[in-house]
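Ticket reopened. Same input as before:
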Amino acid sequence: MRTPALYGIVAEFNHPEEVVAAARAARTRGYRFMDAYTPFPVEGLAEELGFRFNWLPAIVLAGGVVGCVGGFALQYYASVISYPLNIGGRPNNSWPAFIPVTFELTILVAALFAALGMLALNRLPMPHHPLFNEPRFALASRNRFFICIEARDPRFDPDAVHDLLEGLSPIGVYEIEQSR
Amino acid sequence: MVEEVSPSDPGGAPLIAANYTYSSITDRIASIVLTRPTTLGWLAGFALSCLLLITLLGAVSYLLLRGVGIWGVNIPIAWGFAIVNFVWWIGIGHAGTLISSILLLLRQQWRTSINRFAEAMTLFAVACAGLFPLLHLGRPWFFYWLVPYPNTMGLWPQFRSPLVWDVFAVGTYLTVSFVFWFVGLIPDLATLRDRATHRWPKIVYGILAMGWRGSAIHWRRYESAYLLLAGLATPLVVSVHTVVSFDFSVGIVPGWHSTIFPPYFVAGAIYSGFAMVATLAIPIRAVYHLQDFITMRHLQNMAKIMLATGMIVAYGYMMELFMAWFSGSLYEAYTMKNRMTGPYAILYWGLILTNILIPQALWFRRVRASVPALFAISLSVNIGMWLERFIIVVTSLHRDFMPSVWRMYSPTIWDWATFAGSIGLFFFLLFLFIRFLPMISISEMRQILPGSHVRSES
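Engineering reply: fixed in the latest deploy. New output:
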């Protein structure tokens, strides 16, 4: 019988503090490829796992700039270049009248960049993931807190990881197969 | 069974009844969607809203066949019910995003159990609102002419017109509200996917959840995205009703041409939005036994916001009267006099009664603590805000500068059918939402449990 490749080893915890402590312990042991899975955002956990720079605000700013400049350019092009129309003797580039649409498009594009940027950075949608092979993992969206040390970590050694995770008094430790 | 975190009283009136845990919150809210049998009440309500929806389809079909002549609109009252209903619905649609974004930025934790539901209400109300100006176009099948796109006619929308601003404001509001709502739903869809036992719910919720697995790094970006969306939606929600008020205030019609319109419209929108949230939340929390999640504190806070925004609206009415006198304009003065003593006077005084006088009862603690009284007041405000828009649209138009063009407006059966039908559409969508999606944000409710915050170590 062939043993399937290992994706990683997971430990299950009851409290958010425990998973933060586990992440810190794994990090001091030198593990770098790991992630934690929680039913709600746990403060500081991403940083313990080595999350360094959040690109999202920059992406949203870029979206806002695109919407703002693009929105005004659209109206300028339509009213000044493509089809100048004299409305009550106002100048073709009657910019105060273009502010509402410029503003709305700024918000629109920035908001779309925020949502789609978040999904793209998180590599979602991703309908399948090795973690879903473990039935206990369904509780990560209910009441349990998981940490996973991944097999691709250069320091990964199944026995050492088992020892480390078991030592943190988890509810359980499970091996996650790469795929079925 | 392993011991779980149980919440202690955080001090003050509770946001959630005691003794809830991460798992019991999850199971409680998810069970409404996944395991509870469909109730007879739900079926009856759904059937009724389907009936009204069919009325809408009938009224719209006849409208497409015959044109806007079937409505009561005429010259000079070209706007009629369509615009009254548009402004009413879009106003109702303001509470959702306000609760979600402004209260999030202000760290008002009590928003948590009502925000999802209010956001859904916003979406449906804006959808109903969008229907009316489109149908009022005359040739609704050319609605896409409102969108700037290169076309063979070589034409562009008139970007100096508030009506075109409206297209962008409402379109952006609908899109951003949907994005905000859906981003908020993703973790809960994952919960439903993991909790579902049958094949089809697993597949459908699985597709919608997009493979969300609650990774801490994903949560970090998710929270950042959610906060940024809230920051973007906050000025947006203020801008939408401001632009709607420009539809009126940019026109030189007496009773419309006033700088008080934007702030007074925005306050009125929030007022009517909270009234509608209360109107819906009170029966739903009773039917689904959600008193543990939507507590008296939520209802009382909503009552206080209604009282505050209601006072701003009252100030707006008084300022309109004052400016009509102070401006010395004959036409402005006559419009106000006509509102109070003219043929539509009964509606004006009805507006003052339902929108200003009755809600004053909210000053009393005993009224705020009484669920039936709150329900009655929220209904009164819903009616009052509709009357307000009727008064603004109709009384200003029907007697403007020249008595020779003065005319009366009365809605036809098709106006009423379209209005009732839009209420049907709203409830149709709302009933589907309650049945198939978690109406309270599960992941955010878990966060208000006291054990959920990790104390930083020194």
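Chain B has 16 helices and no strands. The mean pLDDT of chain B is 90. Please confirm and we'll close it.
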